[in-house]
């Protein structure tokens, strides 16, 4: 595969793109990882069952009704250096905490199962207003949940126990850099 060097990712770090969502940044990062043969990581589709469709013509089908088939697990999964990785990505507009109701209990259970079976599970949380993005390993989240009865995780907990993901040019959200340090022998 040809390495990406320019056009597609060239202006990601400009002032005009500061408002990009975490999902858009992760999409660019995951494309970069794939095209440069670094990792294979995809956003999982939301499982929806379509129950009503109008067909005004053969090429103009319109979905009128649908429902979520089953609760989805997490947003992203893939493989990196022979290890299965699975993570959930969230944004919050709060300045001082991340509400735990932003992540569903079945998603936490899913990440626990990934960890239990030798995979790498984590959260990526972006504090939008202060423009800080953190990676929080599932084992750190589990410890927080065991030790606290709070309904949110304070920013200070992310700063002390999580890992800040610095905005970069390419890839935009380089979370694999942190995984290298945590799970593949690098230094944090």
What is the end-to-end distance? 31 Å
> How can the largest sheet be summarized?
6 strands, mixed
Task: Please work out how many helical segments DSSP would assign.
Answer: 5
Helical percent range? 25-40%
Q: Give the beta-strand count.
A: 10
The structural domain count equals 1
Question: How would you describe the overall organization of this protein?
Answer:
- This protein has one domain (15-183): 3-Layer(aba) Sandwich (Trna Endonuclease, Chain: A, domain 1).
- The protein is an alpha+beta fold.
- The strands form 3 sheets. Strands 1-4-5-7-8-10 form a 6-stranded mixed sheet, sandwiched between helices. It has a two-stranded antiparallel sheet with strand order 2-3.
- The model is unreliable at 1-19 (pLDDT under 50).
- It contains 5 helices and 10 strands.
- The protein is 28% helix and 29% strand.
């Amino acid at each position: 595969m040809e390495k990406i060097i320019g056009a597609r990712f060239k202006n990601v770090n400009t002032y005009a793109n500061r408002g990009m969502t975490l999902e858009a940044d992760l999409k660019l990062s995951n494309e970069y990882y794939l095209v440069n043969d670094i990792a294979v990581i995809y956003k999982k589709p939301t499982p929806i069952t379509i129950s009503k469709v109008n067909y005004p013509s053969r090429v103009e089908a319109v979905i009128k009704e649908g429902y979520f088939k089953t609760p989805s697990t997490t947003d992203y999964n893939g493989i990196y250096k022979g290890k299965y990785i699975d993570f959930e990505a969230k944004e919050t507009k709060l300045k001082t905490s991340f509400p735990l109701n932003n992540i569903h209990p079945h998603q936490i259970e899913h990440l626990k199962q990934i960890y239990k079976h030798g995979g790498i599970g984590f959260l990526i949380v972006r504090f939008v207003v202060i423009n800080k993005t953190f990676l929080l390993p599932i084992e750190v989240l589990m410890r927080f949940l065991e030790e606290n009865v709070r309904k949110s995780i304070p920013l200070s907990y992310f700063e002390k126990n999580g890992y800040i993901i610095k905005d970069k040019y390419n890839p935009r959200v380089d979370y694999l850099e942190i995984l290298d340090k945590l799970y593949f022998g690098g230094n944090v």
